[in-house]
Automatic annotation (TrEMBL):
The lineage of its organism: Bacteria, Pseudomonadati, Pseudomonadota, Gammaproteobacteria, Pseudomonadales. This is Uncharacterized SAM-binding protein YcdF, DUF218 family. InterPro entries: Cell_Envelope_Assoc, DUF218, Rossmann-like_a/b/a_fold. One of its GO terms (biological process) is Gram-negative-bacterium-type cell wall biogenesis. Pfam families: DUF218.
Length: 257
């Protein structure tokens, strides 16, 4: 995991763009034209990554699954047998809580899964393994938050996964053992296409329930054309999804049942 994390952070923006700027500085005397090209690509990439309007446009492309209509919530039990909510990282040792907590993106997913469960009566499976090998698992933190903060029980905990593919693989093992083939899948809207593909590859029928859409009007002054720190982070997540959607079929396309 640390090696994969190192290369991922080094190559994907902003790491890769910062490397281009470093190369531009190194080549400024040896090859001025190449240095200028690297500078333009690096600086231009960082500028685009910092714009809320880039978030909005990119998300509209990636968020291909529509939101589940609220009128369908109560009827989900006729179409599915369980709700699966995917983890989204954790905040470590938050002093306010004196313990690890689900990330704010994870809490957004959990809140939505709780609403769906209460409306439909469907049981919940939380999926998410250890954070670089350190307990507690994301699934356990999610289950604790569901019970404590949303008064919603969790029936299954999938605590082994480290990737979206493993979320699907190990969740499917548990659900199929319980005779479940049809699920409502809860995750972030930009993450849903890749997640749905994974769960369908392992033989589950999926009703998509995306949440946390970014492809909506950004509401910023000047239309979102001014740089913003939050946009860098959001664009990084979207780029990670775009790369994942390209790479996953190559890595796991032959592993389908």
């Amino acid at each position: 995991m640390p090696i994969r994390y190192f290369f991922k952070q080094l190559l994907l923006p902003p790491g890769g763009l910062l490397l281009l700027l470093l190369v531009a500085w190194w080549l400024r005397r040896r090859s001025p034209r190449l240095a200028a090209l690297c500078f333009i690509l690096g600086f231009g990439g960082l500028w685009l990554m910092s714009l809320p309007v880039t978030v909005e446009w990119a998300a509209r492309i990636l968020e291909s699954e529509v939101a589940l209509d609220r009128s369908e919530w109560s009827g989900a039990k006729q179409r599915a047998q369980a709700i699966v909510v995917l983890g989204a990282g954790r905040e470590q040792a938050d002093p306010a809580w004196s313990s690890d907590q689900p990330s704010h993106i994870a809490l957004e997913r959990l809140r939505y899964a709780s609403r769906l469960s209460k409306a439909s009566g469907l049981p919940i499976l939380t999926s998410g393994g250890l954070h670089y090998g350190e307990p507690p698992s994301e699934a356990l933190l999610a289950a604790e938050a569901l019970q404590r903060d949303f008064a919603t029980p969790t029936q299954w905990l999938e605590e082994r996964s480290r990737t979206t593919w493993e979320n699907a693989l190990y969740s499917a093992e548990m659900l199929k053992a319980a005779g479940i083939q049809r699920i409502v899948l809860v995750t972030s809207a930009s993450h849903m296409p890749r997640s749905r593909w994974c769960f369908e590859q392992v033989g589950l029928e999926v009703i998509a329930a995306p949440v946390g859409f970014l492809g909506v009007p950004n509401g910023r002054p000047f239309g979102g054309w001014l740089p913003e720190a939050k946009a860098v982070w959001q664009n990084g997540m979207l780029l990670n999804e775009a790369v994942g959607m390209l790479v996953y079929p190559l890595l796991y396309g032959d592993d389908a049942e």
